[in-house]
Specification:
The chain is of the alpha+beta class and 367 residues long. The chain has three domains: 36-174, no CATH class; 185-247, Alpha-Beta Plaits (2-Layer Sandwich); 256-366, no CATH class. It has helices spanning 2-15, 24-27, 58-70, 197-211, 232-243, 330-339, 344-356; strands spanning 22-23, 28-30, 36-45, 87-95, 104-111, 122-129, 135-142, 148-151, 157-160, 165-174, 187-192, 216-218, 223-227, 246-247, 255-258, 265-267, 272-273, 276-280, 283-294, 305-316, 320-324, 360-361, 363-366. The strands form eight sheets. Strands 3-4-5-10-7-6 form a six-stranded antiparallel barrel. Strands 2-11-13-12 form a four-stranded antiparallel beta sheet. The protein is flat, with a radius of gyration of 34 Å. It starts with a helix and ends with a strand.
């Protein structure tokens, strides 16, 4: 009798939806702990004749003259150097949080002019500035270009990927640090990556269950404030403990997302419809062209010509209607639509019609 009860319990558990838990670090970010964008303008030299055409990119010549003047080299007035091995480029990078002076970051170098390829080039020292105009890093190094461009004497060319963009791993050295509010105040603020009141409440409840009541407070659907130690070293260990706690986030809002370009339709788990009837029919048009030869009779004043006869056949499948009872789930929607052989385009039309009549209990998003 006992084994029978256990068997029935296992069957009941099989019908329950699985409960998953997510780590806090996977669903949240810490206020103030963020990266910052850097950008700069510089020159890439050493190209094998694939640089800018100076007649069309005068700023490249201007930049080259300005650089040479810094080293005491001045060109005579009116001289325009033809330097096909130089290219004007923009350099950008992300300065990670807590980055320290002397550390290096990766940079991306992109052509600004009409350079055909940056392969084999070297970036000269380029200051990288933040949005406030201050210099935070210096970039320099040999480029790694994944693309390839080859051009023949007759004008034919072959291009693989994008040879006008390259990267320099560890190509920028950090020269200035950016402060952040991580160690300031009595609390640390967590921001949910997806706004949800249920998730915010569950996050605060999970932290309070571990640390005690009133240690975490959900301020809105995104923000949760957590009391933290003032000592920096203790605060680091505290956050290491908090971010590895697991809790069950709230389920997403019922949505139907349609990609109008690819025909992809994604239906959320909680999408339901009210009572509705849907009729679906397919109309096919077949045009068959048959070639024939028109031959004139003997001694006739005519010529042999080729004629084309077209046969047009229109076929319409029997319209099939199926009914959605109230509260239909996702599996039942998919099963009913598959029974009538609807294509993704037909499914889009059906879902849009259900939304128009108010029978679709979900947000319909077309991207």
């Amino acid at each position: 009798m006992k084994s029978k009860k256990i068997f029935i319990l296992l069957i009941l558990l099989g019908f329950l939806e699985p409960v998953w838990a997510e780590r806090i670090k996977d669903l949240t970010t810490i206020k103030g702990v963020r990266s910052n964008q850097l950008v700069g303008y510089g020159l890439v030299v050493g190209l094998d004749g694939s640089g800018d055409q100076t007649s069309q990119t005068p700023f490249t010549v201007q930049s080259l003259k300005a650089m040479l003047s810094q080293y005491g080299v001045s060109l005579p007035p009116g001289v325009k150097p033809q330097v096909k091995n130089v290219a004007a480029v923009s350099v950008h990078a992300d300065l990670p949080p807590f980055a320290k002076i002397g550390q290096t970051i990766d940079i991306t170098v992109s052509s600004l002019g009409n350079a055909k390829s940056l392969r084999g080039g070297s970036l000269l020292m380029t200051p990288l500035k933040g949005a406030d105009g201050n210099i935070y890093a210096l970039a320099q190094g040999n480029l790694i270009v994944g693309g390839l461009g080859v051009e023949g004497a007759d004008g034919s060319s072959v291009t693989i990927n994008v040879p006008s963009v390259g990267r320099v791993p560890g190509g920028a050295s950090i020269e200035r640090e950016i402060g952040n509010p991580f160690a300031v105040g009595d609390a640390i603020t967590l921001h949910l990556k997806r706004a949800d009141f249920t998730t915010a409440k569950r996050l605060a409840d999970t932290i309070n269950q571990v640390l005690g009541p009133n240690n975490a407070r959900a301020k809105d659907s995104v923000t949760v404030a957590v009391n933290a130690p003032k000592d920096v070293s203790q605060r680091v260990g505290f956050m290491s403990f908090i971010e590895n706690l697991e809790f069950q986030p709230g389920e997403a809002v019922a949505k139907v997302i349609i990609n109008s370009r690819s025909g992809t339709v994604v239906i959320g788990n909680h999408v339901k419809v009210y009572s509705a009837a849907v009729s679906h029919g397919n109309l096919s048009v077949t045009i068959t062209n048959t070639s024939d030869v028109s031959q004139p009779g003997p001694f006739a004043d005519g010529r042999t010509v080729e004629t084309v006869e077209s046969d047009i056949e229109v076929a319409s499948d029997d319209n099939r209607m199926f009914r959605f009872p109230k509260g239909v789930t996702l599996n039942e929607i998919v099963r009913a639509v598959n029974q009538v052989g609807a294509s993704p385009g037909d499914l889009v039309a059906i879902l849009e019609s259900l939304k128009q009549v108010g029978a679709l209990s979900a947000e319909l998003i077309v991207i």
